Amino acid sequence: MRNTIFIILFSMILVSGSVLPTTFAAEIQAGSGIGAGLAGVDHPGTWYPGENLKVGDYFKYKLCHESYKDCTDYWFSMWLEKEVLGGPEEKFRFQVLVEDGNRILKGHMDVGKIAPEAIGGTVSDNVLRYVSVYKSSIIWLSSFATADIDQPGKGPKAFTLPSWGKIANIGGEQIGAIGMETITVPAGEYDTIVIGWKSGGITSHIWVVDDFPFPVKASTWVQVTAGIPPQEYRFSLYEYKPNVSSSPFAGFTDTEGVKKDAGCITNYKLVKIFENTNTNSMVINIQYGPEKPRIGCDIEWVINFKKAFSTDLWENQVHYDILKVNVIDGQTIPIASAAEDEGHDKFFSASGKAQRYWLMQGDPGLQKFAVIVYGTGPAYSVPNSESFGYVILDIDLQSKKPVSGSLETLIPTQTEPGISIPSWIKNNAGWWADGLIDDASFVSGIQWLISNGVITIPPTEQATESGASIIPDWIKNNAGWWSDGSIPDNAFVSGLQWLISNGIITIS
Questions:
Q1: Higher model confidence: residue 456 or residue 411?
Q2: Could you identify which of 113, 281, 363, 498 might form a hypothetical disulfide with 387, taking C-beta atoms 3.0 to 4.6 angstroms apart as the criterion?
Q3: Do 134 and 268 belong to one domain?
Q4: Does residue 365 sit in the same domain as residue 309?
Q5: pTM
Q6: How far apart are the first and last CA of the chain?
Q7: Is the same domain home to 121 and 204?
Q8: Which is nearest to 137 in space by CA: 35, 222, 28, 58?
Q9: Do 140 and 268 reside in the same domain of the chain?
């Protein structure tokens, strides 16, 4: 059986891995094109993210970020519906549509007029993760340029300036206008000013248009000290329309609403399977949940690829997929692919860590799944098949809804005693772990949520006076692992209890 699946799946590699996607062929040579010799460009005027933004503007981007599925592309559309009046800050209300493989998510976000960054508490829960990517890519330049002329170091930036500022990392280089270029993206042809910076010998580029609110294209790279740098983020403007008076998203159905009708389980623990591949090429740590997912619902997958000779070491640049397979007459045959369902021939993990959701379709019953490694090597290359291998596992799929009065409906969902944490808080924990929320903001937010009963934790002895002021790294690490489903609720709660017992969080 193992030889059979090897032949079948390896033939898939030869077919799918032989063709380089033309869309991104130009991105293989990191930093190719205009260099980052900063001196400004001979172009009048200034620019900042959000410049000339108007009610009725509609934008559709194809984008990715290394923090989300290792820079797997999805569609992000936004329509500026209206101004939001009242409150301490002038705001715009964007309606948002995300098309991520077979997932369609509709929501909204309010952004500031000084900088078009999403304002906390105004973002729909189901699009929070994607709005975080928007902040770290499409409007990333708001860290250097804003509409506020009174804020030192910010304000609109002239294209003639020799530098707009410095990248905030070790050895960070200056960023600024490095050239002018006429480019064509799916939305049209634009005369652009290229904003760039060089980090570790690699040049990153963002193409902006004077008097246009958002960049039309970007290709940036992660700073590395050795080896080939992975893509940090890229995007391209696919559609732009002004003066759109009614929602362009009216004809889309949010798939999360459909999942609610399927009776999807939302409170579950991940099942853990740690195995060598059939070829002993590497160890694959697989976690999935729920244990018995339903048709019409997602299976969450948390996958770590480790060296076969040492599980403390990560495999990098892994080409992989998650398959549903059938065994017919002793032959194991792929019948469904998670990558194909998202519009890709395979997945890629630069770091060796992956988290994915796969919507289950078909018939209920015990089904066989395979996590397959096609090989290793840079993205958009034919993988080195020396690392080929797979792990097979069985998962019991349930029907969409339990029959009324069945045993399943009579057994309550198991939860940690004394613990209740809304799922949307995982997004906040992840942002804190990634440095998008500072310590003080996260702590004060958690303190308010516990004090007002939104979060319930076991009784914890509270410090009588302020104690520690520095939050240990293990608490922030726990928050990040909990946000991506690697550890259960009680592990995250243990960190909150430490903060309470040491006087950092005070419960009224």
A1: 456
A2: 281
A3: no
A4: yes
A5: 0.64
A6: 62
A7: yes
A8: 222
A9: no
